[in-house]
Specification:
Blueprint: H1 18-36, H2 58-71, E1 85-88, E2 97-100, E3 108-112, E4 119-122, H3 123-126, H4 139-143, H5 158-184, H6 186-192, H7 197-208, H8 216-227, H9 229-233, H10 245-271, H11 285-302, H12 306-315
Antiparallel strand pairs: 1-4, 2-3
Helix pairs in contact: 1-2, 2-8, 5-6, 7-8, 8-10, 11-12
Region (Disordered): 300-327
GO cellular component, one term: mitochondrion
InterPro entries: Mito_inheritance_9
C-alpha cells in the first residue's frame, strides 16, 4: 500500500472470511493495473536478459490474476481450523526478542518488538518457520535428524571449526523450532507441514505482490496448481484454469533463461560480498562498490557489439535506479 496503490478504492479489510483474504490482494493489483498499468521492463534487472530486454505488458499479469481469482475459493485447506484468522509476528528472530536473565533463574522473554508489518490472516497463509530461523537448504535439517557436531571438531583449524559451529547452530535452531512447534502449537505445525502449504503460499504471495514488470512467478505457481488440482480442490471439482501446450513450452523456455540469468547474478553477488538479502557489511561497502564498478568496466570492454554495451550500461543490476514507474 505505497505509491499510487495508497489511493486505490478497493477492499482493504478487515476480512470476514478466508475467501475474502485470498481474493483481495489480487483484486487490488487488478485495480492498480487497470488504472496505472503500462508496459515495463522487469524491475529486477538481473532477470531482464531472460526477457531479451523487452518491456512486458501488464495485460499478461491481469490475465494471470484473473486465473488466480477463479481458483482461489477452491484452494482452502480441508481442515477448517487452518482457515481461522490469527496475528503473527512477521520477522521473529533473536534481534527482535528481549530476554531477562539473572543468576539462578531461567531466561524470561520480556518483550517482542518490530511488529510494523504484521498481518491478520488465516493460519494456512501465516504459517511457516521464520526466515531467520529456517534452514531448509540443508539436508540434515530437511531430514529432521537431531544435529550433532563432527567428532573431529577439535582437530580442525579455527576457520573450519567456526564453519562447523555455524552449520551446527543453524541446524539446531531449525530442529528445535520444528519440534517445539509440534509439541506446543500443533495447529501451526499442521499448517506448515501440509504438503500443499508452500503452493498455497506462493499463489497468495505472487497474486498480491506489486506488479514489477513480470508475471512469471505467478504463472508458474498457477501451472503447478493445475497439476495439483485434485489435491487442492478435491476429487470431481473441474479446474477452471488451463494452459495450452505452446504456452507451457514457452514458459518452460523462459524459466531456463531466467535461471541462467539468476545464476550469473548470484555468482557475482557472492564474489562482491553481497548477502542473499542484498545487504553488505558497512566495512565491506567500499570494496563491494569497487568490485561491481570494475566488473561493469570489464563487461563493457569485452562486449562484442554496441548493442551489448548498451545493455550493460542501461541494465547493470548494481547501478542506481529510478523506481517511480513501479510505484
Amino acid at each position: 500500500w505505497y505509491g499510487r496503490r495508497a489511493g486505490l478504492d478497493v477492499n482493504r479489510g478487515p476480512f470476514l472470511t478466508p475467501e475474502e483474504a485470498l481474493l483481495a490482494p489480487a483484486q487490488k493489483e487488478i485495480a492498480y493495473l487497470n488504472q496505472f498499468g503500462q508496459p515495463l521492463l522487469p524491475m529486477r534487472r538481473e532477470r531482464r536478459p531472460g526477457y531479451k530486454y523487452e518491456k512486458q505488458s501488464p495485460m499478461d499479469h491481469i490475465k494471470n490474476l484473473e486465473r488466480y481469482l477463479s481458483i482461489a475459493p477452491s484452494i482452502l485447506p480441508k481442515d477448517p481450523a487452518l482457515s481461522h484468522f490469527y496475528m503473527r509476528h512477521p520477522d521473529l528472530q533473536p534481534n527482535n526478542i528481549f530476554v531477562s536473565w539473572s543468576p539462578g533463574s531461567d531466561c524470561k522473554i520480556v518483550s517482542v518488538f518490530d511488529w510494523q508489518h504484521t498481518s491478520i490472516l488465516p493460519m494456512f497463509l501465516l504459517a511457516g518457520i521464520p526466515q531467520r530461523l529456517q534452514n531448509y537448504n540443508d539436508e540434515v535439517s530437511q531430514s529432521m535428524e537431531l544435529p550433532s557436531r563432527p567428532d573431529n571438531l577439535d582437530e580442525m583449524d579455527e576457520d573450519e571449526r567456526d564453519g562447523e559451529e555455524y552449520t551446527y547452530r543453524c541446524r539446531l535452531v531449525h530442529y528445535h523450532y520444528v519440534t517445539s512447534t509440534m509439541e506446543c502449537n500443533p495447529l501451526h505445525y499442521a499448517a506448515f507441514t501440509d504438503p500443499l502449504y508452500a503452493l498455497r503460499g506462493r499463489l497468495f504471495q505472487y497474486a498480491g505482490a506489486p506488479w514489477e514488470g513480470e508475471t512469471f512467478d505467478l504463472k508458474l505457481a498457477l501451472i503447478e496448481a493445475t497439476h495439483e488440482w485434485e489435491e487442492l480442490a478435491g476429487e470431481g471439482v473441474p479446474c477452471p484454469v488451463e494452459f495450452d501446450p505452446q504456452d507451457l513450452a514457452e514458459t518452460e523456455e523462459l524459466e531456463k533463461r531466467l535461471n541462467r540469468a539468476t545464476l550469473g547474478f548470484e555468482f557475482l553477488q557472492s564474489q562482491g560480498g553481497v548477502g542473499e538479502d542484498g545487504w553488505v557489511r558497512p566495512e565491506d561497502y567500499e570494496g563491494s562498490m569497487a568490485y561491481f564498478k570494475n566488473m561493469k568496466k570489464k563487461g563493457l570492454e569485452s562486449a562484442k557489439s554496441e548493442q551489448d554495451r548498451d545493455e550493460i550500461r542501461n541494465h547493470w543490476p548494481w547501478d542506481d535506479m529510478d523506481e517511480e514507474d513501479y510505484m
